[in-house]
Amino acid sequence: MEMTTGGTGSLSRRAFVGAAAAATAIMAAGCAPESKLAGTGDTEPRNYQVDAEFDENQPGEWKPVPCWLLCGGRCQLKAYVVDGVVTRVKTDDNREDTLEEFQNRACPRGRSQRKHVFAADRIKYPMKRKSWNPGGTEVNGELRGVDEWERISWDEALDITASEMKRIYDAYGPEACFYSGISFCLFPQKVLPLMGGYSNFAGCTSYGHWMLCSGDLGISTEAGEPGVMGANDRLDMLKAETIVLHGLNPAWSSGGSPAFHFWRAKEAGAEFIFIGPEYNVSASMLDARWIPCRPNTDVAFLLAVAYEMLRLDKEKGDIVDWDFIDRCTVGFDKDRLPADARSEENIYDYLMGNIDGVAKTPEWASAICGTPVEDITWYAEKIGKNHAVTTLYAWATGRNTAGESMPQAALTVGCLGGHFGKPGHATNPTEIYYAGNEGNKLVSAGAMRDVAVSEAVAGNPAENGSTVAIPLASLWKDINKGSYTDIGNCDWVNCTTAGMKEPEEKPVNIKMIMSQCSQFLTTMVDVNEGIKAFRSAEFVLSMSQHFTTSSQYADIVLPSTTPWEGPGYDQSFLQLTYNFANRETMYFASWAVAPLFEARSDRDICHDLLDRLGFNGDDVFPYSEEQREFDRINGATFIDEDGVTSRPLVTITQEKLDELGLDGTVQEGVIDYDELVKRGLYHVPRSEGDNRGYIAYADFVADPEANPRPFSTSGKFELYCQTKADGYNRMGIYKEEIKPYACYRVGEGCYQDSFTDFEGGVKGEFPLQLYTPHYLRRAHAGFDSVGWLRQAFENPVYMNPLDAADRGVSDGDWVLVRSKAGGVLRQVSTMETLMPGVVGIPHGSWQEMDPETGYSKSGCENVLCPTSYESGLMNGYNSTLVEIERYEDQDLLADKDRPVVLPAGIEE
Predict the structure, then answer these.
(1) Mean pLDDT, all residues of the chain
(2) Which CATH architecture has domain 121-199+497-561+596-619?
(3) What are phi and psi of 105, to 5 degrees?
(4) What angle do CA 97, 99, 102 make, to 5 degrees?
(5) How confident is the model at residue 508 (pLDDT cuts 50, 70, 90)?
(6) Any residues with CB less than 8 A from the CB of 3 and at least 6 apart, and which?
(7) What gap in Å lies between CA 389 and CA 305, rounded to an integer?
(8) C-beta of residue 872 within 8 angstroms of C-beta of residue 485
(9) Which one of 99, 163, 190, 679 is most buried, counting C-beta atoms within 10 A?
(10) Is residue 37 scored above 50 in pLDDT?
């Protein structure tokens, strides 16, 4: 492909986007252009119209609007509004696209956002399931998901909801209400605490084992998320000789600018390495060397790398940074154990086989992870101390049943090379909005004024909200059996094991499920068990914009607005998504249109429901959303050129305050209020060598004693961590003792578990390992019903051609993918870039169950992921074993041809 270059010989953004789009299209289909699934093989050029060619002479206005579904790119959108309808969407064009001030350009998901807002499956008005009636006697829960619906008024919907809440809270107590979602949204923040609390889950979906112990180990938690402040910013990445993407695919999972940052690093001379089960589109774009590694075997791979680094250092020297080990770590061997160690076991003796009799050689690891021995040895030398290496991990490497050692194994390898606190050197996760550009925020929005429910209402009985926390991995089965094991919860902010406790069996009696701002039923493991839980409740409420899986299994559905539709969208959530931008950018988006149909804002719904529950909504929501949105602008700050001083961002005059009729502060900033509102974002300019750069752990590495890691007991990186081991073992859910150092453990759904006889090579009933990549069709589970994206990204099951041939299936064939938890129907897409024995189904499809077979005809991958009690506080998504067989019915409709699910019985 001929590439257009700029004056400096660099690849232009337009050429980059074209090349990336071509690679993405090929890899999204997962097969050659002539395959059945990819299409007809037509190669005629397309004359696509780009935003710059759009005729703006028609009457209308461009408005900056949010792209709110947390894919990770955090890009800007602008909507062209004509008579209350968005007719066109474009992306960031506020300035030239340069290295210093890159444009925050949207991916296909963001560009299809208007098809998400103006969608056929938007819930237009309140609805009630026909066969359900309030009171707890006419539930007919078995009809949830298949019943018809009837339209009701807002007054009736809110009256029924309030009545049911009072009845269930009075009869069963607050623990009978399960909030099916994340606790920072309005319902659990503003409504349920006033009722006395609610039940929720313990653990974390996204971060896996990176959440549970990163702080204990000394890994960065400054952002309230594991590791993402532990790598350097995008300009420092240009100094790396080698950049390793371990399990990462930013072109899909963090669409937009992150992939461009990595391209800039390649353009600057960095060599890329990709480690994972599939040579993905990001690796292809960056011409990365592929080191194959099976799902859930990353720890074995890293242990062998550590072993080889030690061997090569002994033979050749200059591989291991012993000065770094001595100054910045504890616990590498028995002579370096921390003061709180209760055992002389250590990672060095474990690697050498002195503890279990098995040396962690490349040969040992290769039999497990499938990585060629020579690749392990090559990699161990490549990441030695004298090379500037940035190693970036995906959180997905810890989303499995035996992944508790993953963060510590990554830390150990990074410490052996001394890849911390120096230009071009980094070792840590990089994900979503931090991808490729980590560091402290250079521009931040102001805090929106608010009042806590404990201040708004006297005598609030449940200031802490959630009163029951069911372990995440066993959530649905525990609800269905009526009891759970209370093992505490992880420390979400500091990522430590401090909240984990000794197990205690407790009853649970869920009678009401409330869903808001979440695709919880789709995104948790064991979806079929989740449907059973929904069907067993007396009352299920869904507040939603679309007819999602959770809405389909509800009794009352309340239509809520999107962030494009006027003030009042759940600002606690929207504030979070606004702040989930890269460190140089802050968004100040507007709403584009009035609320559609009868949809109401989350704030208004909660306000009026509180009035019916016996509280005063004005007490809980005393400030207008216009005022709160203005607070974000009035209180916004940026880091000045000295890299330290925080200054007001926006110039606001008294005349402007009088014009707006809002409360605020007169101040001098660097951008005028009207200009900021027009742009919808502010981007802090950068340049190489400026004072705004970020190198993670720099102060700690320079002087560990003066700058200790805040949550590790020793203040250093803990290669032996007694706190980690104690926290895990305290929960009492593991079949074997968790060690204080990184070690490989075989858990349910691991590679060895796919055999009935591993040593003899005899495969079991479910011989294939499933992984569930993020995908450009969706952001998590968002966008799944958007027709444009269904056409562009077909959501197949990816297979190696050898595995397909063994099962007599070809590209485009419909197959049944089954596990011990359930079955899904998908079309096959064969890829030689996928390891044999591994299959992939993209994450996030909304469940559509075939009532005759019980299979998911929409490809909801979490139907396949089983409950694993040993996973405890996190889901073992990548620890799922499956088998695939050709399906008897080959005339099924592809996703792009299958209509979206709409509420039956409702006349449009």
Answers:
(1) 90
(2) 3-Layer(aba) Sandwich (3.40)
(3) -95, 140
(4) 40
(5) very high
(6) 11, 12, 15, 19
(7) 15
(8) no
(9) 190
(10) no
| Amino acid identity, position 887 | Y
Which two structure tokens, joined as six digits, stand for 837?
A: 């024995």
Backbone phi and psi for residue 765, each to the nearest 5 degrees, phi listed first: -65, -35
Q: Look up residue 142 and give its two tokens.
A: 């078995």
Report how far apart, in Å, the C-alpha atoms of 354 and of each of 321, 654, 737, 738 are.
Answer: 23, 74, 18, 18
SS3 assignment, position 434:
helix
Q: How confident is the model at residue 144 (pLDDT cuts 50, 70, 90)?
A: very high
Q: How far apart are the first and last CA of the chain?
A: 48
pLDDT tens track for 804-845: 999 999 999 999 999 999 999 999 999 999 999 999 999 999
DSSP state letters, 442-507: SEEPPPPP---HHHHSTT-S-TT-EEEEEEGGGHHHHHHHTEEEEEE---TTT--STTEEEEEEEE
Q: How far apart are CA 62 and CA 781, in angstroms?
A: 28
Would you mind telling me the total number of residues written for the chain in this entry?
Answer: 908
* Residue 586 bridge partners (DSSP): 682
Q: Which of 311, 415, 411 is closest to 363 using CA atoms? A: 311
341, 722 Cβ separation under 8 angstroms: yes
If you ran DSSP here, which 8-state letter would residue 286 be given? T
- CATH class entry, domain 209-319+361-436: alpha beta
- Residue ranges per domain, the chain? 121-199+497-561+596-619, 209-319+361-436, 751-886
Q: Does residue 542 have a pLDDT over 70? A: yes
Which of 578-587, 804-813, 897-906 bottoms out in mean pLDDT, i.e. has the lowest?
A: 578-587
The predicted-structure confidence for 260-314, as pLDDT tens digits, reads as follows 999 999 999 999 999 999 999 999 999 999 999 999 999 999 999 999 999 999 9
Strands 768-771 and 797-799: unpaired
What DSSP element (H or E) covers 114? helix 113-117
3-state secondary structure of 899: coil
Specify the residue for token string 């040992």.
364
pLDDT at residue 510 in the model: 98
Question: Following DSSP, what letter does each residue of 705-771 receive, concatenated?
Answer: TTS--TTSTTSSEESS-HHHHHHHHHT---SSPPPSS------TTSGGGGEEETTTTEE-SS-EEEE
**Lookup: tokens for 186:** 């309005």
Reported as type and span, the H/E element at residue 637 is strand 637-639
The CATH architecture assigned to 751-886 reads: Beta Barrel (2.40)
Burial state string for 140-174 with b = 16 or more CB within 10 A and e = fewer than 16: ebeebbebebebbebeebbebbbebbebbbeebeb
